[in-house]
Design a protein that fits this description.
Helices cover 49% and strands 10% of the residues. The protein is of the alpha/beta class. The protein has a five-stranded parallel beta sheet. It is globular and about 50 Å long. The chain binds adenosine-5'-triphosphate, (3R,4S,5R)-3,4,5-trihydroxycyclohex-1-ENE-1-carboxylic acid (SKM) and magnesium ion. The site of magnesium ion has 5 residues, from helix 2. Catalyzes the specific phosphorylation of the 3-hydroxyl group of shikimic acid using ATP as a cosubstrate. InterPro entries: Shikimate/glucono_kinase (IPR031322), Shikimate_kinase/TSH1 (IPR000623).
């Protein structure tokens, strides 16, 4: 049994026991899950960070941002934080200092982002491969793996050339090699959601459901 307990949601979110499971989607918030599910997801998260892990193109940044917006918690993207701190693009960082320096900076940024309570952190595709990163994420967060098939990833990443690891003669083959090396490690994340050719709101909704299910298991209060 986890030490995390379901707690009431923030003021104004209503009583979980009486709230109806209706969707609260609006024109400004299409696909937003029911308040009851949002409230349960927040209770499961507690003061932790929900940390998106997975390969390039899985949707960590896009889905993470939407989930944070729905949960009304701060959102951070480790790649963006690295670019902000270094005032360089990731491609330029790789070119100027090499991957090892990038990974050192990434580890520092992740350690910092894991502090200070509830939120959502979308990591870069290689971050979860570092054992120290996995440890800090496990201590202060809850990792969700956005699993995706090669063709889905390829269709998305081939639109842009901003991923230095894919600047090879056979980028799709490189992506496949990365999948084979990384998926067993991503699979150690406690939560997994299949990212596929479906609306972002569908995938984000499944992340909220996966989180809400953690709350239900922890409390034994499944309804
Ligand atoms: N469900 C979806 N449907 C359609 N497009 C999507 C979906 N999810 C993500 N995308 C798009 O795919 C592209 C890659 O997504 P995103 O940048 O979020 O991936 P990522 O996992 O953060 O990759 P990286 O590890 O390189 O940061 C973006 O253009 C994003 O808008
Ligand atoms: O998969 C990876 O190792 C990477 C993914 C991107 O998010 C960036 O963090 C960088 O391009 C490296
Ligand atoms: Mg990203």
């Amino acid at each position: 049994m986890s030490r995390w307990r379901a707690r009431p949601g923030p003021p104004g979110w209503g009583d979980r026991s009486t709230e109806r499971s209706v969707t609260h989607a609006t024109a400004a918030n299409p696909g937003r899950p029911a308040e009851r599910d949002i409230s349960r997801a927040l209770a499961a998260l507690g003061p932790r960070k929900l940390v998106f892990v997975g390969l390039m193109g899985a949707g960590k940044s896009a889905i993470g941002r939407l989930v944070a917006q729905w949960l009304q918690v701060p959102f951070f993207d480790s790649d963006h934080e690295i670019e902000r701190a270094s005032r360089m693009s990731i491609s330029d960082l790789f070119a100027a200092y090499g991957e090892a320096e990038f990974r050192a900076l990434e580890a520092r940024v992740i350690r910092r982002l894991m502090k200070n309570g509830a939120g959502v952190v979308s990591t870069g595709g290689g971050a979860y491969m570092n054992e120290k990163n996995r440890r800090v994420i496990g201590d202060k967060g809850l990792a969700v793996w956005l699993d995706a098939e090669l063709d889905v990833l390829w269709e998305r990443v081939s639109r842009r050339d901003n991923r230095p690891l894919l600047k090879t003669e056979d980028p799709k083959g490189t992506l496949q090699t990365l999948m084979e090396a990384r998926y067993p490690v991503y699979a150690t994340a406690p939560l997994r959601v299949l990212s596929r050719d479906a609306p972002r709101e569908t995938i984000a909704g499944e992340v909220i459901s996966a989180l809400a299910a953690v709350a239900a298991q922890d409390t034994g209060n499944v309804s």
